[in-house]
Amino acid sequence: MKEKIALLKEKIQSVRIKTPEDAEKFRVAFLGAKGELKALYQELKTVPDGDKKTIGQEINALKKMAEDVLNQIDIEEVKTDKKHSNDLSRPTYENQSGTLHPLTLVKSEIVSIFEKIGFSISEGPEIEDDWHNFSALNFPADHPARDMQDTFFIDCPNPELSLRTHTSSVQVRVMENQKPPIRTISPGRVYRNEAISARAHCFFHQIEGLYIDKNVKFSDLKQTLAYFAKAVFGDKAKIRLRSSYFPFTEPSAEVDVSCSLCESKGCSVCKNSGWLEIMGCGMVDPNVLSACGIDPTEYSGFAFGMGLERIAQLKYRVSDLRLYSENDRRFLQQFQY
Ligand code: DAH
Predict the structure, then answer these.
(1) Left, alpha or beta for 74 (phi > 0: left; psi -120 to 50: alpha)?
(2) Closest Cα partner for 159 from 118, 129, 183, 134?
(3) Does 191 contact ligand 1 (Cβ within 6 A)?
């Protein structure tokens, strides 16, 4: 048995592998199901018990040696002829690096725009309780305003839990935990029970903004939004505010930005109006300040909330919301930066 092992060792050592076919032949001959090593293992059964351990170890070592021979050969090098593999002027393989998702690009851009004027970033949970998503934001129980947002309730023993319908829930968490002055933005994913189409999805992303201090006025809100619009859509961008309603702000407004695609001349994207709706905003309702432990006689503030998909749609002319979550590489690869 010992001689057989020594012989096989010599045989393995003498093999020269030059092509992928040689490598396969080597594998079959020595390591295959009907190969020489298998035969040795069979024969091990006939060895007297006292010798089994040492002989077994020797066969194992031989097997490892054969495996190492196979693992160490570089099939690429074997395949290509020597001259070619030494060609130092040959271009390198293409670098397959990934790209950032368009929503990530827009989020980072918006975050850095607000960071420049002193806003911090805050985050909150996607599974939220009734207090933070609704009650503290001045949505009275059974008030029809709750129907503005089709909520996904969570089927669990706590009937109060749902997927957050907006990132305004994070303002409540921030105000409960920090003393003014507060300047923060909260990016995150939100959920609504809507049929999926080119214009709506059951999940999407928002950025919420909140500024609380002494003497914050509506004009501060307007200037902040004008600064934001110019930073995102270019120096010529203008904003206009249309009066609106949200339970958590009073007064409330809808914000439009001048259409940069047609320079406000009118096109299919702005439906010939020259304006594009980009967010909601307003002065934080005193009831919300009180609910979060901030004295509304001492402090005031503004808030705003925008959809990231909408901003990315306008910046990159994305025509169908579903593209953001379908992982089609042809779509994603357009956002090389
Ligand atoms: N939470 C609102 C929504 O999801 C957006 C919003 C509107 C946020 C006005 C605000 C605001 O902070 O002031 O539709």
Answers:
(1) beta
(2) 129
(3) no
153 and 7 in a single domain? The answer is no
Q: Are residues 80 and 108 in the same domain?
A: no
Same domain, 170 and 304: yes
* Residue 89 within any structural domain of the chain: no
Per-residue pLDDT tens for 54-111?
999 999 999 999 998 888 876 655 555 555 567 788 888 877 778 899 999 999 999 9
Nearest to 259 by CA among 276, 235, 242, 246: 276
> 160 vs 4, 65, 336, CA distance in Å?
76, 64, 43
CATH at residue 331: 3.30.930.10
Q: Whose CA is nearest to atom 2 of ligand 1?
A: 305
**Token digits for 265?**
């001349």
Nearest to 119, CA basis, from 111, 107, 127 = 111
**What type of residue is 72?**
Q
pLDDT in tens, 234-285: 999 999 999 999 999 999 999 999 998 888 898 888 889 999 999 999 999 9
pTM of the model: 0.73
Nearest to 322 by CA among 161, 210, 202: 202
- Domain range for 68 is 2-84
* Residue 93 lies inside a defined structural domain of this protein: no
For residues 39, 40, 46 and 50, what is the CA-based torsion angle, rounded to 10 degrees? -160
Number of domains forming the structure of the chain: 2
Kindly state whether residues 300 and 164 are assigned to the same domain.
Answer: yes
pLDDT in tens, 310-332: 999 999 989 899 999 999 989 99
Name the residue of 114, 139, 168, 190 whose CB sits within 8 Å of the most ligand 1 atoms, as the mutation to test its pocket: 168
Which residue, judged by its Cα, is nearest atom 8 of ligand 1? Answer: 305
